[in-house]
Amino acid sequence: MPVHDDTSIRSEFLPVGRPMLGDEERDEMLDTLKSDWLSKGPKTKLFEEQFKEYVNSAYAVSVSSCTAGLHVALRSAGVKEGDEVITTPMTFVATCNAILYCGARPVLVDIYPDDLNICVEKIKSKITARTKAIIPVHFAGHPCEMDGIMDIAKEHGLIVIEDAAHAIGSEYRGKKIGSIGDMTVFSFYATKNITTGDGGMISTNNEEYAVKAGIFSFHGLSSDAWQRYAPQSKGVYETVELGYKYNMTDIQASIGIHQLKKVDRFIDIRQKYAHIYDEELSGIPCISITKMKQYVKHSRHIYPIVLDIDKLKISRNDFIEAMKKENIGCSVHFMAIHKHKYYREEIKIDSSDLSTASYVSDRVLSLPLYPKMTEKDVYDVIKAVNKLIRIYNK
Ligand SMILES: *Cc1c(COP(=O)(O)O)cnc(C)c1O
């Protein structure tokens, strides 16, 4: 499709992300509302069964969000006060908040400039006697270097909990994300690749972690409500841990069951649009795009670009404002963790040796990318980016 005249502006605002829901989700939800079971019950169980099959893991434990899932996974791994957990600064604040909920300290390792994922070579120098776990975050859906990460973890006796909020459907060297680390946590927030409104899932191949995750996500009880009220149940269960009220509901699972059936189709569309962005944006000055490894499947949750603001007469934030005037929504994934006020002032997080993340944090922005977009929308975005770069190039 040709990128035609410069001056025209889209007539309708294009948001940066939107969910894609259909009649199947609506009908299933209505069916749940008519039933007698609204909270965690048969539909949540079914969603968990489907999910573990999809990611090729032995167990799947549903939770109320990815944030809750990360907290539960860290507790299940035994992370406690005084421990250290290694992760990336290029993530949503929830990753590090979950570490703090356990009384542990996040330790940040810089990222690769190519895919913006945690730099494996730099992990080792941050390991101390207090290090308990590593949380790799598959940024934008591009898998981290899991072979290197698993090797380091094995050598040092660390637990690997993957933050796969962006990475449902992604694969690393032929293996589904969700089947590799000790535990993997997914998000079904409204703008993620699939949604349940809010929700999350922990996948694992370790029975002990699966049992613990079930306990921590439901009040620390030795069995959850669905089992307690089941006909064959004796109905007596005790608190064995200080757990949380972090379960998914059957209302959420009703949506998830059908979203999961559509995830591969959604990813196909995302990949097609990302390919158009790659082709059309790679020739534009002052912009860099991420590079994809040959041996991964990339779920393309977000499409980040990095602006060379030193060669532009405009800051990243002003560029986003200018895009809004073109009727196109953009957002920032992410402001690096060490740049947040709370992490600077209260946590006094160690921000040394994070030069790539610091650079990217001030320059990165995400363009709209989701299956509800049309191909014309994609070309409208490219046209607007082209126009602004031409106007603001020094
Ligand atoms: C969205 C997101 C989360 C949190 O997911 P919720 O389901 O909203 O709790 C965690 N990590 C990353 C990288 C995310 O993008």
Please tell me how large the radius of gyration is. Answer: 22 Å
What is the strand content? 5-15%
Main β sheet profile = 7 strands, mixed
Number of strands: 13
One letter per element, helices H and strands E, the order comes to HHEHEHEEHEEEEEHHHEEEHHHEH
Note the overall shape.
Answer: globular
**What is the helix content?**
25-40%
Give the structural class: alpha/beta
> What's the total helix number?
12
Lateral strand order in the biggest sheet: 1-9-8-5-4-2-3
Q: Quick recap of the structure?
A:
The chain has 394 residues and is α/β, with parallel strands linked by helices. The protein has twelve helices and 13 strands.
Molecular structure report:
With about 400 residues, this protein is of the alpha/beta class. The protein has helices spanning about 25-35, 40-55, 65-75, 95-100, 145-155, 205-215, 225-230, 250-280, 315-325, 340-345, 355-360, 375-390, and strands spanning about 60-65, 85, 105-110, 130-135, 160-165, 170, 175, 185, 200-205, 285-290, 295, 305, 365. The strands form three sheets. A seven-stranded mixed sheet has the order 1-9-8-5-4-2-3, sandwiched between helices. The longest helix is centred in the last third of the chain and has 32 residues, at about 250-280. Bound molecules: pyridoxal-5'-phosphate.
